Amino acid sequence: MDHLILLFARLTDFAARDRARKIKVQAKAEGGKNKATAQAPQNSNGQQLPPRPSPMYGMIPAPGPIHLPPAFDQSRQDLLNEANRMVLEDVGLEAATSAAEREWSEIWAALDLLEEAFGPDFQPLSAEQMTPLSTPFGPALYYRTYSIACLMSLFFTARIFAARVHPSMPPAAMVAAGVAAQRTARWANNIGRISAGLQPVSTTAPLNPSHGAALMDSCMSIFHAGVQYREPAERGWAITNLRNTARLTGWQTAALIASGCERAWMAAAEMGKGPPYTRTMNTTAKDDRIAGRSRVVNQGPPKDNNDRRFIHVNPGTRVYWAIGIIGMEEDMQQLKVG
After folding, report:
1. 167 and 231 Cβ atoms separated by less than 8 Å
2. Residue-wise burial string across 140-177, b where 16 or more C-beta atoms lie within 10 A, e elsewhere
3. pTM, to two decimals
4. Beta strand residue intervals within the chain, DSSP E
5. Quick one: DSSP state of residue 62?
6. Cα–Cα distance, 160 to 180 (Å, whole number)
7. Tell me: the pLDDT tens digits for 40-94?
């Protein structure tokens, strides 16, 4: 697990540092496309508009065309300087891209090495050892312990994360998830199968602590894989089991992850990048994000709480589990426990 956590740290650090380069590459590509498609201005009827009048150099414009005095004409020199600057930027950008590809290849090789180090104890159990369970992703995968199942789920998550942060991917995470979906489909499918093997047989019986911890640990993997699920059966399974985890363990972050998956599917459908999706809501939830209530509310003036004059808080989306870190003494006194 330590090696996997370190690889996650390397991937996160690489993605953060490479984002600026990706933005430059994207801006350069979009700039060239805009220049190639630039046309003369036209009106609504498709007729070309007349050129803009010459600038006025003085209080009263002189008749006829106006020419800038040669002493002030720096356009030719500016064009030469701009061309030289673009050549230098291109060379630097190509070198940065090559360096990013080398670094990414080293991280990917480390993931391959880690996978090769997994021995037979990290392989899923055979069908003779466990009762087969059919899921939208295929037969559920079972492992010898909950810890091994969570580790393998996180390993496939690392594979997905690495594919999405490849130097050739777009800088926006959600866009990259869609572009890399075809390559990461098998790992997302494996995460669904592993998560299915972790689900309790009965959703009403109490869980032992180790089983509940495994369900909680698997939620983040389901989130990274779930945003690219397209089939209704796969989406429905993910939402149902995330909410079951929230109900059985009391860890309401699982319900927020389910809401995040639904928002991602709806956003993809709006952009024409995915099938339509109708959000399901738990109207009895206290958190507005889970219940589907509008986040735009009239909260009135903020309460007087030390120096929080410019902080507006939506009570329906308070992150209560972080209050011990970012809260103040007045918040702790008002917190009802028990």
Report:
1. no
2. bbbbeebebbbbbbbbbbbbbbbbbbbbebbbeebbbb
3. 0.70
4. 134-135, 138-139
5. P
6. 8
7. 555 555 555 555 555 544 445 555 555 666 666 666 555 555 554 554 466 688 8
Gap between the Cα atoms of 44 and 248, Å rounded: 60
Place of tokens 């860890």: 251
Sign of CA dihedral 99, 100, 102, 103: positive
Token pair for 213 = 């911890």
- DSSP labels for 264-303? HHHHHHHTTSS--------TT-SSHHHHT--S-----SPP
DSSP sequence for 128-181: TTS---EETTEEPP--SSHHHHHHHHHHHHHHHHHHHT-TTS-SSHHHHHHHTH
CA 245 – CA 252 distance, rounded (Å):
8
Structure tokens at 336: 């009802």
Using CA atoms, how far apart are residues 102 and 296, in angstroms rounded to an integer? 46
Tokens of 254: 């699982």
| Number of alpha helices (DSSP H) and beta strands (DSSP E) in the chain | 11, 2
Q: Name the helix (H) or strand (E) containing 77.
A: helix 75-117
pLDDT in tens, 173-219: 888 888 898 999 999 999 999 999 988 877 777 788 899 999 999 99
d(CA 14, CA 7): 10
* Rounded-to-integer distance, Cα 251 and Cα 200, Å: 16
> Nearest 10 degrees: CA dihedral of 106, 111, 220, 141?
160
Please identify which residue in the block is written with the tokens 């070309």.
Answer: 48
